[in-house]
Each structure stands twice: as structure tokens, then as C-alpha cells.
Specification:
The protein contains 13 helices and 12 strands. The protein is α/β, with parallel strands linked by helices. It has a single domain, classed as Rossmann fold (3-Layer(aba) Sandwich), CATH 3.40.50.720. The strands form 3 sheets. Strands 3-2-1-4-5-6-10 form a 7-stranded parallel β-sheet, sandwiched between helices. A 3-stranded mixed β-sheet has the order 7-9-11. Strands 8-12 form a two-stranded parallel ribbon.
Length: about 325
Amino acid sequence: MGDSFWHSRRVLVTGASGMLGSEVTHQLLSKGADVSVIIRDRVHKSRLYLEDFYRKLNIAYGDITDFEFVERVIGEYEVETVFHLAAQTQVKVGNVSPLSTFNSNIKGTWNVLEAVRLHRPHVRSLVVASSDKAYGDQKILPYNEETALQGRHPYDVSKSCADLVAQSYRVSFNLPVAVTRCGNLFGPGDLNFNRIVPGTILSLMKNEPPIIRSDGQYIRNYFYTKDAANAYLEISENFEKTVGQVFNVGSEERYSVLDLVSLITEEMGSSLTPVIKNEASNEIREQYLSIDKVKRVLGWHPKYSVREALKETIAWYKKYFSVD
């Protein structure tokens, strides 16, 4: 299907100023979609503005926790396809501010789902972004889609709940929804510099040692946003195969935090060593996904290695973030 599927299709992306949302939006625009976006704040360093593609969008400024606003946008823009990506995405913020995390991630999700329900059958498909964090801490790895959702800490619980609410709308109301659970995302446009990839890049650009909040031994899948956005579009394009289902999407490469920082340091030609603070709390030590299902159902697999993706990501920060 590809570009012809998306040409002039009316699509809504929530959270479009974020790291993943901006890449999904960029790919949709490149395929000729008519893209509307929900943005809470005008973030001038978002890719939407830095790369100047906001001019091609229908932008609705508002909060997904406001149901009347969400419902109005879906109705007035005659949306056919929805990508719900808006969320509070940081574990640390969840620990400090659980209520705002629950509001954004759970209430925001049910608002989108309910608005879509009210605008059936015009809205044909909805992809909801969950997370590997929804699985919580598990003894058996890798997670597959049958693994129980058992988040325990605020951020993880918010993703478990949002995931289950989305599934309930499918089962109870036959809503055309699919759910994705991604590994740790990185790529251009991540403005949360307390996260390991952008934080390390910025530190090394300033010729400062990178900071590791944990002990450096936490293990994750690290997943490039270009691959993630491509997976989202593939899932939506093939909705006759994916509706009502859950898909893990990610890279099959696993890195400890220390190994990832070493890889970035090597790519940037630095000899600086990280400062290990060992301050992280309420985080899962080891997480990684099986992506066998999405490979089997759609034939999808990531195109970028972590090393290739880091090269592109580093180049983007060097282009758009000058340091004195």
C-alpha cells in the first residue's frame, strides 16, 4: 500500500511535538497524508519547528485530559486514522508526580478512546502506544505479548492501565484499536536530557563527562524512532491483520546503560568516562522484548542497527544544538 494508502488520508497524531510523535508526523507528511496534531505546548525546539514542517499541519493546541477538546478535534477534522502517542514518558517524573502521570497516561487514553467511539464509523483505525514498561518486572524474559501486565511503580502502572483500557474498548465496543509496546526509544527530537542517549550526547558535546543516574547495569532494548514510526504506520496500513491485537515492537539488540554510553562515547570520538551516581529508584533492572509476532504477522523488522541509529542521532544534535 505505502504512499498511496496515506495520500490525503485524514490522520490525527496526539503528542506530535514529542520524539516519536514528530517522527510519525514527518513520515505521514512524506506520504501525502492530511495530518492534524494535538499539542499541549508550543515547544520551539521540537522537530516540528526546528525542521519547519509544522507549517504543513493542522495544529490543535490543548490537553488530552480535556475530553471535550479531544472529541471536538476528532469530529471537526473528520479524522479517519488516529495515532495516540501523547503521554508523560519519564519514569522519574512518575515517581515525583504520580497524579499528573496517571492523568496524562490513563485519563488521556480513555478520552481518546471514548472520542473515537463517538465518531465511529468515520474513524477507521486507532493505534495506541503502550510500552514495555506495562509488563513490569518479570522473571521470564523476553516479554512476549502473552506476558501478564503487572506494573508496580507509577509510570509502569500508568502504562499497564492505559493498555488494558484500550483493550477493553476493543472487546466491549468493537473499537478498531491496536496496541503497541515499544522498547526504550531514542532518536532526533528527544528533549528530555535526563534520558541516557540525549543526555550523554549533550554532555560530550560540551566536553563534560556523561552522567549515569543508575549503577549502569540496567539492561534494555534501545529502539530507533525511525523504525518505531515505520512500525506504527505498517500496523495501521494493515489493519485487517492487526485490529484488536497487541504487538511488541523494538530492536532485538540489548545493551546495559554503561555499554550504551560507551558506544556513544566511541562514536563521538571522546575519551571521557561517565560519572555513575547510582541514584535511580523504582526502575526495572532488566527488560527486553520478543518481536516474533510482528515479524510473523507483518514481516516487519527494524532496519537500523543501534550503532547506525546513534550516528544519525548524534548528527542531528550537532546540527540543531550548539554548545558554547
